[in-house]
């Protein structure tokens, strides 16, 4: 089973988002540094362990090196001329080694799984494995896969203990849906086939139903195959925010 784990939102200064989002009623905390990639982050966690990751660069040399690895979110950011905003989606799995084998057999280029970690501001270590994959020339990039070193309940307890997960003043918030505009809806069917997501289709869109979030793809022949909006439900008041090219819509 594959669930939405997180959405990557590149920004210039992730630490600024701690106050910016908190002022909007969205609890946001510093995450830490990815010493191996030259990036650092802040985080907004929601129900079902899904979250927004605000990523910035602190070391150009390390980042440039990481951006050379095919199908990574760093390569995506570089290829998109470092346009800030939503960049990639990560799906959570607990079968990452089997996933790598299955995706290779499906004819995709696969990098990983590889193990990584980062240090939180309190000194504790967070560890995970990543699997990147794709097809050359594919305009709509696949999600990447992540497997955490803790089971979901253990991780939930750890996030509570560390203060990463907590109450949002705006309400009991949940990532409801992610909206993308794409040039070719046929590519979306690949996602459905690879991850066994229910597919609901109309003349203008395809909706993929994941266990904890809907992925909604609209056709537009001039689209840049990007995430255009993240819809977050459970808010006590409805509003929209635009932050570094990223659109957030809060609904009740």
Which SSEs are present, and which pair or pack?
Layout lengths: L2 E8 L3 H10 L5 E6 L4 E7 L5 E7 L2 H7 L6 H7 L5 E8 L3 H10 L3 E11 L5 E10 L9 E5 L3 H11 L8 E12 L3 H10 L2 E4 L3 E5 L4 E6 L6 E10 L3 E5 L2 E5 L2
Characterize the structure shown.
This protein is of the alpha+beta class. The protein has one domain: 2,3-Dihydroxybiphenyl 1,2-Dioxygenase, domain 1 (Roll). The protein has helices at residues 14-23, 60-66, 73-79, 96-105, 152-162, 186-195; strands at 3-10, 29-34, 39-45, 51-57, 85-92, 109-119, 125-134, 144-148, 171-182, 198-201, 205-209, 214-219, 226-235, 239-243, 246-250. The strands form 2 sheets. The protein has an 8-stranded mixed sheet with strand order 2-3-4-1-5-8-7-6. The model has no long low-confidence stretch (mean pLDDT 95).
């Amino acid at each position: 089973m594959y669930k939405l784990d997180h959405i990557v939102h590149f920004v210039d200064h992730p630490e600024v988002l701690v106050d910016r989002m908190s002022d909007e009623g969205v609890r946001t905390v510093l995450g830490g540094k990815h010493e191996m990639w030259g990036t650092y982050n802040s985080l907004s966690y929601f129900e079902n362990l899904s979250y927004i990751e605000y990523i910035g660069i602190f070391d150009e040399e390390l980042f440039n090196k990481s951006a050379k690895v095919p199908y990574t979110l760093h390569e995506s950011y570089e290829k998109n001329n470092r346009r800030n905003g939503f960049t990639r989606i990560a799906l959570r799995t607990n079968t990452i080694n089997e996933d790598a084998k299955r995706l290779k057999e499906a004819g995709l280029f696969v990098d990983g799984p590889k193990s990584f970690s980062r240090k939180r501001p309190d000194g504790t270590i967070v560890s995970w494995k990543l699997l990147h994959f794709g097809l050359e020339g594919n305009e709509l990039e696949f999600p990447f896969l992540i497997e955490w070193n803790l089971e979901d309940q253990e991780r939930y307890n750890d996030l509570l203990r560390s203060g990463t997960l907590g109450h949002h003043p705006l309400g009991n918030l949940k990532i409801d849906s992610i909206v993308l505009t794409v040039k070719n809806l046929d590519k979306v069917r690949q996602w459905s086939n690879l991850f066994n997501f229910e597919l609901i289709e109309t003349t203008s869109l395809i909706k993929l139903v994941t266990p904890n979030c809907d992925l909604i793809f609209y056709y537009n022949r001039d689209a840049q195959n990007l995430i255009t909006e993240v819809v977050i439900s459970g808010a006590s008041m409805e509003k929209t925010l635009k932050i570094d090219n990223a659109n957030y819509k809060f609904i009740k």
